[in-house]
Amino acid sequence: MTHTKSSAPEIPGYGFGLPGTACSPVSNEDLRQLEETIGWSTADEAVMWRYAGLFREHAEQMVDTWRAVIGSQPHLARWFVASDGRPDEEYKARVKQRFVQWVIDVATRPHDRAWLNYQEEIGLRHTPAAKNRTDGSHTPTLVPLRYLLAFIPIVTNIRRILESEISNGDGLRALELAWTKAVHLHIALWARPYTRDGLW
Amino acid sequence: MTHTKSSAPEIPGYGFGLPGTACSPVSNEDLRQLEETIGWSTADEAVMWRYAGLFREHAEQMVDTWRAVIGSQPHLARWFVASDGRPDEEYKARVKQRFVQWVIDVATRPHDRAWLNYQEEIGLRHTPAAKNRTDGSHTPTLVPLRYLLAFIPIVTNIRRILESEISNGDGLRALELAWTKAVHLHIALWARPYTRDGLW
């Protein structure tokens, strides 16, 4: 399969901006307040843009690193296991492509309605509302919220991957902070479908 | 009021290890798997212990810094407002004392059953199940989960506060990572009462 990672990639189940993707109930005002809480600023957006090429280049390496952590822990790997008790390799491969694209999207996508809707879709795909639906798979119908939250420090620790690329310590620090804020914003949005009515 | 912050402090509503505090339904095995997911290790615990004095010394300054962020944003400050529309200063003062103690506890408390139960209690105190109950206050009955999650990058960014104290860059980095892991562990536990049945 050929695609350019920087434009519209042909990734199975990658529904960004497509019909059939969830509609986020999060208002623009909710989003603005969430960004303000995190401290997300135009400076953070600019830092992410400046280093977008690095994310494109290293996205797969990052995901491989994270997936190795998942693969090494049975309580994390089990959410990728089919009903026959074996890892669902096709599901894993499809999810991986989307995970790689997510890294690039975090660095490059503006926080508009299409982006917001797709974060709702990603959240739903971790819950019984939509897990397996996109891929016709038969893995458990959930990734528990606690693992999504507990995995954040793994995903925000990009220093080891990027420090060889960025010699400027302040630049690396700024990128690390911007990435950390962005990841938390995404996870906060993904947490919505997990949350009891009115408590999100 | 006099108390030593390092032993059992006389803080109103600080129910750590006391009867009447919630019982966490999280099993020891759940906790172990959560710690493993985060990458929490004995090395992290040792780093937190090594710098416990710094946390004791700076806990109030940290909380003041974070509370200034909250106070500057109406969508965060509103959860501390009484039914008469004014900030509930008594509630704020009591919560602040417990928040300061929480910082010290993160650095010093072992992850045992009393600790686990108190994290459940703290989580509940952010939800309609128990907000205001401890303090007899009349603020809104919720801090929405999204703000708890969005506030994490504010709380994990301790570098500016501690870098003048730790001249060793690697030591500061290790402390920052250990603190980040610990905060996510706590928030993952606090998220439990917010979560739909079976999805935590």
Structure, explained:
2 copies of one chain form a homodimer. In chain A, helix 2 crosses helix 10 (169-190). Chain A starts with 27 loop residues before the first helix and ends in a 10-residue tail after the last helix. Chain A is globular and about 50 Å long. Chain A has helices at 28-38, 42-50, 52-71, 74-77, 89-108, 113-125, 145-150, 152-156, 159-162, 169-190. The first copy, chain A, has a single domain (28-194), classed as Orthogonal Bundle (Globin-like). With 200 residues, the first copy, chain A, is mainly alpha-helical. At the A-B interface, helix 1, helix 7, helix 8 and helix 10 of A face helix 1, helix 7, helix 8 and helix 10 of B.
Summarize the structure.
The structure is a homodimer of 200-residue chains. Helices cover 57% and strands 0% of the residues of chain A.
Q: Beta-strand percentage of chain A?
A: under 5%
For the record, the CATH class of chain A is: Mainly Alpha
Overall mean pLDDT of chain A: 94
SSE order of chain A in H/E notation? HHHHHHHHHH
Tally the structural domains of chain A: 1
Helical run tally of chain A:
10
Q: What is the subunit organization of this protein?
A: homodimer
Using the 3D structure, state the CATH architecture of chain A. Orthogonal Bundle
Sum up the structure in keywords.
10 helices, homodimer, Globin-like, disordered N terminus, 200 residues, mainly alpha
List the topology elements:
The structure is a homodimer of 200-residue chains.
Chain A: H1 28-38, H2 42-50, H3 52-71, H4 74-77, H5 89-108, H6 113-125, H7 145-150, H8 152-156, H9 159-162, H10 169-190
Helix pairs in contact in A: 2-10, 3-5, 6-10
